[in-house]
């Protein structure tokens, strides 16, 4: 009978050591999962940082380009550009402006339309209302001779 008692003691020892071993293996697996998730989170954090730096770079570039564009629209710079290309321009008079509606028809009651209609009384009323209006170059724009020779 002593033999049976020994077997029971051994089985109790084997059972308790298996419980401790399973706890150790579980803890090891959990640590590995933790380290893998930590590495993934670190990689995502670095990627977010790189994207934020790129966004800041693009925003600063946008600000610089807006500033350059605003500097180009200053009347002084416009005059310099016009002289560089040999153009002489003045602000158009009110009788030179034709405002168009969204449908592409001139808005009625404008000085320029009255002047056009008075200068061409021979045209019929149908031709005035239904014919599309051609765009003409403004009479206040003219080309100047280039200082550096013949302009092509």
Q: Short description, anyone?
A:
This protein has 152 residues and is mainly α. Helices cover 63% and strands 3% of the residues.
Which helices and strands appear, and what pairs or packs with what?
Layout: H1 2-72, H2 75-84, E1 87-88, H3 111-119, H4 125-130, E2 142-143
Antiparallel strand pairs: 1-2
Structure description:
There is one protein chain. This protein is mainly alpha-helical and 152 residues long. A two-stranded antiparallel sheet has the order 1-2. The radius of gyration is 43 Å and the shape is elongated. It has a domain of 36 residues.
Number of strands: 2
Please state the overall shape, judged from the principal axes of the Cα atoms: elongated
* Major pleated sheet: 2 strands, antiparallel
Low-confidence stretches: 124-128
Number of helices: 4
Distance between the termini: 121 Å
Report the sheet-strand fraction.
Answer: under 5%
**Nearest-integer average pLDDT:** 77
Oligomer: single chain
Query: What does the radius of gyration come to?
Result: 43 Å
> What series of H and E elements makes up the topology?
HHEHHE
* Helix content bin: 55-70%
Instruction: Please list the strands of the largest sheet in the order they lie side by side.
Output: 1-2
Coarse structural class = mainly alpha
